[in-house]
Amino acid sequence: MNGHFLVAMPGMSDDRFARAVVYVCAHSEEGAMGFIINQLQPMEFPDLLLQLGVIGEDELIRLPKATRHFMVRNGGPVDRTRGFVLHSDDYMVDSTMPVAEDVCLTATIDILRAIAGNGGPSQALMTLGYSGWAAGQLEAEIAGNGWLTCPASRDLLFDSDITAKYDRLLSRIGIDPSRLVNDVGHA
Prior knowledge:
This protein is 21% helix and 30% strand. By secondary structure, it is an alpha+beta fold. Strands 1, 2, 3, 4, 5, 6, 7, 8 and 9 form a nine-stranded mixed beta sheet that branches. The longest helix has 8 residues, at 45-52. The radius of gyration is 17 Å and the shape is globular. It comes from Phyllobacterium phragmitis.
C-alpha cells in the first residue's frame, strides 16, 4: 500500500482523522506509517526556520516568496515535534528514502536549508508529526469501513489546495460523499 492515499470515511471514530487524506509511505506486516496531507499546522514555515536556526531574523526578508508561503502540515498525532518532507525525486541526499516510484522522504534539516535557499526539490510538502499503525491495525480499520484506499497521484499529493483535497480526491475516484454510509455490510 506504499504510495497510496487513505481517505477517511464519514464515520471515522477518531476525530484527529475526520475528513483526512493520508499518504502512506510505509506498509508492511509490522505496521504502517503515513502523513495527513490536508491539515495545516498553525506554524508558518519561516517561523520554523527561525526556531531551528536555519536562518536568522535578518534573512527572513530575503526568503523567496514560495518559501515564505510554504505550508507546514499536521502529519498526524505521533511525534508532533519531528519534521518530515515528502518530495519529488529530483532532490537526494544520503538521508533521503524513496517511498514510491517518484516520491521520496527526507527528515533531516538539510532539506529545510535547501528549500530556504531555493535549491530544494521541485515539489515538496512538510509535515510535523506522522500517522502510525501497529501490525494489523490499519487493515482492521479498513475492514471496519474506516478508510477508503486508492493509488496516490503526485498532483493531489503536492498541490496546495488543502481545503478541497478531500472532496477532490473522492470525486476523482468516482465517489459522491453524500452517498457514503458508515455501516459495513456483508452479502
